[in-house]
Amino acid sequence: MNSFLNTSRPPVFCPGCTHDRITKSLDAALVKLGIPDNKTVIVTDIGCSGLFDTFFNVHALHGVHGRALTYAAGLKLADPSLNVIVTMGDGGMGIGGAHVLAACRKNLDMTLIILNNFNFGMTGGQYSATTPSDAQVGSEFLNQAEIPMDICGVVESAGATYVSRISGHDDGLSDELVSAMQYKGFAVVETLGLCTGRYTKRNQLTPKVIDQMIEQRPSPGGMIARNQRPEYGERYRQLAKEKGKFPEPFVVKKQFDMPDARRHEVVILGSAGMRIVTAGDMVCFAGISGGLNVSIKNDYNITVLRGQSVSEILLSPDTIGYTGIESPTVVLALSDEGVARRQKIFAGLSSDTYVLKEASVAIPDTPAQVEEIDFKAMKIKKTDWALASLAVLASQKRVLNKDMLVFALKSRFNEKVFNLSMETVEKIL
Amino acid sequence: MAFVFMEGNEAVARGAMAAGCNFFAGYPITPATTIFNNMLQMLPPKGGTCIQGEDEIASMGYCIGAAMAGKKVLTATSGPGISLYSEHISFAIGSEIPLVIANVQRLGPSTGSATRGADSDIQFMRWGSTSGAPVIVLAPKDAKDCLELTVHAFNFAEEFRCPVFIASNKEIGMTKESFDMDDLNLPPLVERTPYTGSDPYVPFAADPDKAPPFLPIGGKTLVRQTSSTHGPDGYITIDPQIIADMQQRLHTKLNAAMDRITLYEENMVPDTDTLVISYGLTSRAVTDAAAALAERGRPVSTLSLKTLWPVPESLLLEKAAPFKRIVVIEMNLGQYVNEIKRVLCGKKVDFYGQMNGILIPPAKIMEAIENE
Ligand code: SF4
């Protein structure tokens, strides 16, 4: 192939616009590279650099402002064999900054060409993230109150493995683009150019001035030694391969006759660290093994190591509709924090409700039947109180029985934890 | 009976895997995070890709790129994430990119309450994009629905090449429930139609009531994709007729298939004068309320919508016709009821809604039904 340019859609840039030269250099680079047209995709951003995809006969994706790198990453992850090229302007660099930084840290094998022409050409020459403070631009004085960012400096410190800066008028541009595309990793090429339609009308910027700018701040020169590391896609696939087996859902069959096969609403009131959620799951596994439908909701603080931990469990021979607690049949009061969280329910409990309360926990007045148990005196650690109270329920064949509890523990725990938990259970049963 | 026990979010992930999903990108957000966690366990062993985006915008961008390379993609978030998804939802609608978005809704506005449920985004999912072109929104009522509707969502996304939302809720996503795997009713899988014609591929050429056939970026044939207003060739156009046809097709491709897109459950009780319409989790409390009312000798009929958008207008008209009164119950202060009033124009439509971070109890629903 001697050109990838789309002859039916020639470039439409303003006369003298550096984008025109970059288009031709990119074409020359693609020819030198010799990759088939259907193995290259050009992903473009918004603005005049966003027109690039239309000038080439390769795969093309043009999207929303600043997000080009995100589509490019999706494409590359989905099809690692693709040569992925992204074009964006200094505008896209500014608005899509988070994506540029993320792409630098990831190091997917893609080439990002940032066509820096120091302003927003398409919308009228407003200042961008790279406009010098002393430039005359379409946003009045606003650029004077800010400083421009150094694209190469930023991407290098963000971890880009290949970074270069080059004039769009440099005869070596196509070779530079070839080495960027050949480089295996995230390559960023910042081209400096003229926006004749807007910027150079009011600012003295010429190819010569651009050369001076590059002399003052030379290109990092391509490969960044200190950032070298494996390509993201390869690393990802290697790590993913080491990932274990597909987690099949845990299936429970009915195997016990529930001692008390009616609707139960169980509320466990405890604190973080008391394994309330685990105990809740145990009640559910036990219930399912008894042929019941179950649902459970947990209420704990976002800061998981502190505060209340409350489980609300429904068990029912019928399909469960409303999943809120309406009239609890069993309340396990295991910590003051937990009780405080559901303080309001106590006065409304029915006289049939069974409340099991640890001796150290205070509860509001309630018409329910209250039984007190002193786990501390039984030398049961606080972290095991929830489990111990399930053993109390099992001893009374309330909600569950011993077989069901043992089954639940066995299904959820490994052998070591199971044996430890059985030590607690045996103290009660 | 083979009971499984999982939260709605895990069920969404299992539904996605059953549908052949092979790409996920998302950003952590309560109450949707466990979908991401589950996908991270499930995709790698099956050779799929699961990544965490640097933000929600990027997550959608990764999904769009992967979908255009031919992957079946899922992402998951909650209200604040949907806000950030918006620009890419518009892109996916206008440029016909198949993707499934699980929205585990929480109480808004804004950051609202991370751990409190509400059906906050029912209108937002439909209208939170530019142009007004339609999307599909499916509302599960429980974990089993999460699994089944996610498979439907993938099927619809593939066939119609548009974003499909799962309108879940914190109270489903983070509630673990048992259900019988033998009861699962999964539809046969639908894949996007590949282009097989002998003429050169024109990426957006399609019948007026269909999505265009698909070829992936990276395949043998060159493919163009663009977020800009485009003609069938995928290049920008200003031709009013071409624009009008493309715009119209985005609507027609869904409207023409409404019968298949419309999913619902009903319980029509003879000789009742009231139809209670609800969706999602709330419909379960409605079922309880209806059972209790029947016991009291005041039976009502119920209709629970699973497809919310496009609004199943013919279904609503047909089902509501025999009833004197419609009662709509929603876990917000009135969003979907506006659609029902629009469609059932002239009918008596009463409403009860609640937005206080807790579920609507059956007793409140009974009150709303009894307070004529
Ligand atoms: S406005 Fe500037 S960047 Fe755009 S085409 Fe004209 S010269 Fe080039």
Summarize the structure.
Chain A has 16 helices and 14 strands. With 429 residues, chain A is α/β, with parallel strands linked by helices.
In this entry the ligands are: iron/sulfur cluster
State the largest interface: A-B, 69 and 75 residues
Largest sheet features of chain A:
7 strands, mixed
What is the CATH topology assignment of the largest domain in chain B? Answer: Rossmann fold
Q: Tell me the helix content of chain A.
A: 25-40%
User: What would CATH call the homologous superfamily of the largest domain in chain A?
Assistant: Thiamin diphosphate (ThDP)-binding fold, Pyr/PP domains
Q: Supply the number of helical segments of chain B.
A: 13
Number of strands of chain A: 14
Tell me the Rg of chain A in angstroms.
Answer: 34 Å
Largest sheet descriptor of chain B: 7 strands, mixed
Q: Explain this structure to me?
A:
The complex is a heterodimer of chains A (429) and B (372). Chain A is of the alpha/beta class. Chain A has two domains: 18-241, Rossmann fold (3-Layer(aba) Sandwich), CATH 3.40.50.970; 264-428, Pyruvate-ferredoxin Oxidoreductase, domain 3. Chain A is built from 16 helices and 14 strands. In chain A, strands 2-1-3-4-6-5-7 form a seven-stranded mixed β-sheet, sandwiched between helices. In chain A, strand 10 and strand 11 (308-316) form a beta hairpin. The model of chain A has no long low-confidence stretch (mean pLDDT 96). Chain B is α/β, with parallel strands linked by helices. Chain B folds into two domains: 1-261, Thiamin diphosphate (ThDP)-binding fold, Pyr/PP domains (Rossmann fold), CATH 3.40.50.970; 265-370, Rossmann fold (3-Layer(aba) Sandwich). Chain B has 13 helices and 15 strands. Chain B has helices spanning 8-18, 33-42, 56-68, 79-94, 122-127, 143-160, 170-173, 240-255, 258-261, 282-295, 313-320, 337-343, 362-370; strands at residues 3-7, 23-26, 49-52, 73-77, 99-105, 136-138, 163-169, 176-180, 224-226, 264-267, 274-279, 301-305, 307-309, 325-330, 348-353. Chain B has a seven-stranded mixed β-sheet, sandwiched between helices. Chain B has a five-stranded mixed β-sheet with strand order 10-12-11-14-15, with helices on both faces. A two-stranded antiparallel ribbon of chain B has the order 1-8. In chain B, strand 11 (274-279), helix 10 (282-295) and strand 12 (301-305) form a beta-alpha-beta unit. In chain B, helix 1 (8-18) packs across helix 2 (33-42), helix 1 (8-18) runs parallel beside helix 6 and helix 10 packs across helix 13 (362-370). Strand 8 (251-252) of chain A pairs antiparallel with strand 1 of chain B. Iron/sulfur cluster (SF4) is lined by residues 13-14, 17, 19, 48, 117, 121-122, 195-198 of chain A.
